[in-house]
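User: Hi! I'm working on a homework problem where we have to compare a predicted structure to a textbook description. Could you give me the structure for the chain below?
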Amino acid sequence: MDRVIDTNIAVIANGREVTASVSCQIKAIEFLEAAVSRDRTVIDAGNRVLGEYRKRLKAEGQPGVGDQFFRHLLDNQGNTKRIRVIDERDARGDPLRRAFAHGNLSAFDPSDRPFAICSAVGRARVVTATDSDWLIHEVGLQACGVRVEFICGKAAATKA
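Assistant: Happy to help. Predicted structure tokens:
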């Protein structure tokens, strides 16, 4: 299954997100382990998604599961069975870009926008854990073709 994976899942899996519960951290670890073994992660050709991961994760792949996931992405960029690279330029003029520019998503977190664009262009679900911005803007994102899955439940996102 193709999925766009929000940075916060990897950060939570590393134990670096103090607002996440222990059960959410366990879900994040299990999710990433399963994603590496059976799913295909969607990233963009412009490396904006990898850039967001790079801000909060260690490319060496240690010491956490989130860091290992990031290393997996870096090592497998050419492996189409593990990574699907979309050309975000395909989103030019699409409703999502217009919504970011001057519509109902203009307040949507700029650091989450590359993930939303990958979702819309790649027709893949965004998976997040506790990021409230995805919940706050869920209706607007859905209108633009972005589907969001909350692995720790929507209630966890309201507390973040």
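For your comparison, note the following. Strands lie at 2-5, 40-44, 83-86, 125-128, 148-150. The mean pLDDT is 90. Good luck with the assignment!
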